[in-house]
Amino acid sequence: MDKLLAVVLLALSTGIDNFVVSAAIGLAGINARHKIRIALTIGIFETAMTIAGLFLGDRASGLLGGYTHWVGGLLLLGTGIYIIYSAKKGDQSAKKKTNGKLAQQFITAMSLSIDNLIVGFSIGSQKIPINEAILVIAVISISLSLIGMELGTRLSHKIEEYSEIISGIIIIGVGLAITFKIL
User: What is the CA radius of gyration of the chain?
Assistant: First the structure.
């Protein structure tokens, strides 16, 4: 039971950035179909990176361990800058392209899930049941993403004029927090 609690806490801690970024995505305004697709993409990447971490083991963590926060943080910074640039440019079609573009969703999901490599390493070294860990991480990741996007969507109606810029600023903030190991 203690090992399952450890997995839940790890999943929540790595899922907090999913929640914040998903709220920012929701601020930009997306429909229900895109919310589900984005949440599933994030959940799949979070789970896949955990599995990859399990299989890569301690040797790979030595190579990537000190740099994963830089890679994830810089990818989020780039995403946030692109969103603000598109909003300032006044290109309304860019909003729809960003929300619907699968490549952009993959980049965001990948940058959010890099920390799950380390979670995978720790789960593997603690002899925690892999199937349970994968299920818990997937459910928590998808749930936090959906809750974040719904919250962001509800807030966007109140601050619609500035929602894309706020979205970009939040994503940049999370990127900085990951880069400097605050999250």
Answer: 16
C-alpha distances out from residue 42 to 89, 109, 153, Å: 28, 5, 18
Does residue 137 contact residue 7 with C-beta atoms inside 8 Å? yes
Nearest by Cα to 171 from 12, 13, 67, 18: 18
Q: Which residues contact 87 (CB under 8 A, 6 or more apart)?
A: 94, 95, 164, 165, 168
Q: Model pTM?
A: 0.67
Q: Tell me the pLDDT tens digit for each residue of 128-173.
A: 677 888 888 889 989 998 999 888 888 876 666 676 777 678 778 8
Distance between CA 167 and CA 19 in Å, rounded?
13
CA–CA separation, 110 and 104 (whole Å): 10
How many Cβ atoms sit within 10 Å of the Cβ of residue 32? 11
Helix (H) or strand (E) holding 48: helix 32-64
Domain boundaries, the chain: 2-179
